[in-house]
């Protein structure tokens, strides 16, 4: 099943909102995932393959950090625009990162993110290795935490490896390009060798994995190994998914990991939640 069909299936399977739902289930903003795509030599083809397979309504933001020549104006915005229906922007200082949009790093700039806004700084031109990808990923991990996703594509050297480690430690997702599909496998191999890559995929398969990841039940575990019920269910309510809440309460990981009081509180919710679901299905 391809990604577009998977999204359509999920959309049609979700119950419609009703006044009863909104009166019982609190409303929170949908979680905002940001995908940072790092690429260098040979990365343009991989970027095109990635966006050729990315739907325009994936509800995440995409930030492209590619090593660019300091001597020529970048055409990356125009080139990426030919492979996606999403809006593609060259990043500007203090520009907010919106969902379903693509932002491209400008020439001769270092980019970070703070409070959901892109920050630009002049790049010092020296003979040292280019660390633009690491720089952005460090800030992304700090700013978005578990809602940060790092994608490491074709390139030489090791830029992105340390930043990917920061994303991993923050609870985010790391995907590296399958080395045999990369024109230059230095960056993907470096990220893979660090042990921080959650998935190793060709670019065309990455968007589906990202969509699946952003739709998973976000079970939060406390340091004592027990389920953080309040945070977990709150995240499910953010998605307004009754189906996922019910699935959590019957999940073996919840039953085994939750303490007795947490389980009893969760079990008490099953009846009211099922009532909400039944009312929605009749609406």
Task: Give an account of the 3D structure.
With 283 residues, the chain is α/β, with parallel strands linked by helices. It folds into 2 domains: 3-28 and 218-282, no CATH class; 33-215, 3-Layer(aba) Sandwich (Rossmann fold). 42% of the residues lie in helices and 17% in strands. It has 12 helices and 10 strands. The strands form 2 sheets. It has a 7-stranded parallel beta sheet with strand order 3-5-2-1-8-9-10, with helices on both faces. It has a 3-stranded antiparallel beta sheet with strand order 4-7-6. β1, α3 (43-52) and β2 (60-66) form a beta-alpha-beta unit. α6 packs parallel to α7 (186-193) and α10 runs antiparallel to α12 (260-282). The two termini are 30 Å apart. Mean pLDDT is 77; it is low at 1-29 and 255-265.
Helix segment tally: 12
If classified by CATH, what would the architecture of the largest domain be? Answer: 3-Layer(aba) Sandwich
Question: Could you say which overall geometry the principal axes of the C-alpha atoms support?
Answer: globular
Share of residues in helices: 40-55%
End-to-end separation: 30 Å
State the strand order across the main sheet: 3-5-2-1-8-9-10
Number of strands: 10
Return the CATH topology of the largest domain.
Answer: Rossmann fold
Whole-number radius of gyration? 21 Å
For the residues shown, what is the average pLDDT? 77
Structural class: alpha/beta
Number of domains: 2
CATH class of the largest domain: Alpha Beta
CATH superfamily of the largest domain: Methylesterase CheB, C-terminal domain
